[in-house]
Design a protein that fits this description.
Helices cover 40% and strands 18% of the residues. By secondary structure, the chain is of the alpha/beta class. The chain starts with a strand and ends with a helix. It binds 1,4-dihydronicotinamide adenine dinucleotide (NAI), 2-OXO-4-methylpentanoic acid and magnesium ion (MG). Catalyzes the oxidation of 3-carboxy-2-hydroxy-4-methylpentanoate (3-isopropylmalate) to 3-carboxy-4-methyl-2-oxopentanoate. The product decarboxylates to 4-methyl-2 oxopentanoate.
């Protein structure tokens, strides 16, 4: 089997947490006796600074020639004023998602027993384990819809979905639910949006093919509230690009920190793995970012792209053990504990593999 991985550290904390993930990969390679070929590429603001493009041709080539892509994060205030197509977000990450046809973004949010105190939710709400998988449509919807325009006095975005696009992601949602708690909540805004009315129709039509899955529909405003009031009611959430972006950050907060939440962006041939959060400019360069989201994204890559399930499990178990042992970066620090650095967290995980 070929193990060719495009590594795109990106901006902000991206390179810091990527360094940690690659050290973990190194240890995993030693332990499990394989070697991955890593090819590094530029993306985002750092790519723009160096080449004038947030997604240089060279990076596209590297990604298209790889078996999987491991991404850090992109963006930051330095590049916010650029023309839209030059920004790290639109010209970099969204263009890459489009190019690789990454249509399904899986964002698992699991609360660690030891991190319950970090959740903004009370013990009454967290009486059992939160374990929510958001299945977010990633290649269409309002982030990509045309027309899209910005003038001095007008901003225009278009939310468009076709039934084929909805069907593909909703099937992923049903299939994920079948492998988990057999509950699927489809989140939309079908009381207002045409794209959501279509979404709900497609979900309802597909439901009879998955009789073992209990389906519910929820409007996105209510879903945002229900996540706070009773997150335990959710197993798998399937939703559109924008709603999934927002609700997955909320589910991360419920579990204690965005720094813990990995993601897998599944494509037709090549998939990409990245933390759910961004480049965290507020803490970038300080060596204090939580590398766990990046390290768990690596675990998802080993599992989804390479079937290296034991290696992925070894990473997850080392992360669990670190959290249990009270090793904490600042974002998941309880009173009376001392924060470790990004590097120290990575070393602690490595020593447990
Ligand atoms: N996939 C990507 O590359 C994404 C990029 N972005 C970009 O990131 C930049 C900053 O966006 P924000 O809205 O501030 O979102 P953000 O996700 O970067 O940060 C939100 C908050 O979470 C914290 N946080 C995130 N990851 C963390 C980690 N690993 N360890 C500890 N704390 C962590 C940050 O310090 C900050 O307080 C923007 O340019 C945005 O466009 C945002 C989301 C996703
Ligand atoms: C930065 C955006 C392009 C996307 C985003 O916030 C995300 O994928 O979580
Ligand atoms: Mg986001």
């Amino acid at each position: 089997m070929s193990y060719k991985v495009a590594v795109l550290p990106g901006d902000g904390i991206g390179p810091e947490v990527m360094e940690s993930a690659l050290k973990v990969l190194n240890r995993i390679e030693e332990k499990f006796g394989f070697k991955m070929e890593l090819i590094f590429g530029l993306i985002g603001g750092s790519a723009y600074d160096e080449t004038g493009s947030p997604l240089p041709e060279e990076t596209k080539k590297i990604c298209l020639g790889a078996d999987a892509v491991l991404l850090g994060s992109i963006g930051g205030p330095k590049w916010d004023g650029l023309p839209p197509e030059k920004t790290p977000e639109l010209g970099g990450l969204l263009a890459l998602r489009k190019m690789l046809k990454l249509y399904a973004n899986l964002r698992p949010a699991v609360i660690y027993e030891e991190l319950r105190a970090m959740s903004p939710l009370s013990e009454r709400v967290l009486r059992d384990k939160v374990d929510i998988l958001t299945v977010r449509e990633l290649a269409h919807g309002i982030y990509f819809g045309e027309p899209k325009e910005l003038t001095d006095t007008m901003g225009l975005d278009t939310m468009v979905y076709t039934s084929d696009q909805v069907e593909r992601i909703v099937r992923k949602g049903f299939e994920a639910a079948q492998k988990r708690g057999k509950k699927l909540c489809s989140v939309d805004k079908a009381n207002v949006l045409s794209s959501s009315k279509l979404w709900r129709r497609v979900v309802t039509e597909l439901a009879h093919e998955y009789p073992d899955v209990e389906l519910s529909h929820m409007y996105v405003d209510n879903a945002a509230m229900q996540l706070m009031l009773n997150p335990l009611q959710f197993d798998v959430i399937v939703t559109s690009n924008l709603f999934g972006d927002i609700l997955s950050d909320e589910s991360a907060a419920i579990c204690g920190s965005l720094g813990m939440l990995p993601s897998a962006s599944l494509g037709e041939e090549i998939s990409l793995f990245e933390p759910s959060g961004g480049s965290a400019p507020d803490i970038a360069g300080k060596g204090i970012a939580n590398p766990i989201a990046q390290i768990l994204s690596l675990a998802m890559m080993l599992e989804y792209s390479f079937d290296l399930n034991e290696a992925a499990a070894a990473i997850r178990s080392a992360v669990d053990d670190c959290v249990k042992s009270g090793i904490r970066t600042g974002d998941i620090l309880s009173a009376g504990m001392t924060a470790v650095s990004t590097k120290e967290m990575a070393d602690a995980i490595i020593s447990r593999i």
